[in-house]
Amino acid sequence: MEQCRKAGKSHWYHETQSTMSSQTPLSLMPEAAYVNDRFLLDLAVAETALTPFESWLKPARQLADVLFPRTVLNDRSYV
């Protein structure tokens, strides 16, 4: 992002912070959280197409489950 300095402003900021967008932001899709294959985000791929990649795909899915669990305990005792 390119930084710019506008007249009358006493600080630097990114261009994206200086312009107002006329478009409304897209809303989040809660149904995206409910997919069968969380690693591929329910991408429609035939199982036969994924077979050559099983050597790294299976460990990657297991790691994704560890790094991004389905539920997270909200506990502030470790802060």
Order of H and E elements:
EEHHH
Tell how many strands the DSSP assignment holds. Answer: 2
- Report how far apart the termini are: 33 Å
Q: Approximately how much beta-strand content do the residues carry?
A: 5-15%
The overall pLDDT, averaged over residues, is 74
Read across the widest sheet, the strand sequence of neighbours is: 1-2
Structure, described:
- This is Putative cytoplasmic protein.
- With 79 residues, the protein is mainly alpha-helical.
- It has a domain at 44-68.
- 28% of the residues lie in helices and 5% in strands.
- The chain has helices spanning 15-18, 47-50, 54-67, and strands at 3-4, 13-14.
- Strand 1 (3-4) and strand 2 form a beta hairpin.
- The radius of gyration is 21 Å and the shape is extended.
- The two termini are 33 Å apart.
Give the tags:
single chain; 79 residues; mainly alpha; 28% helix; extended
Put the structure in a nutshell:
By secondary structure, this protein is mainly α. It contains 3 helices and 2 strands.
Helix-strand layout with pairing:
Blueprint: E1 3-4, E2 13-14, H1 15-18, H2 47-50, H3 54-67
Antiparallel strand pairs: 1-2
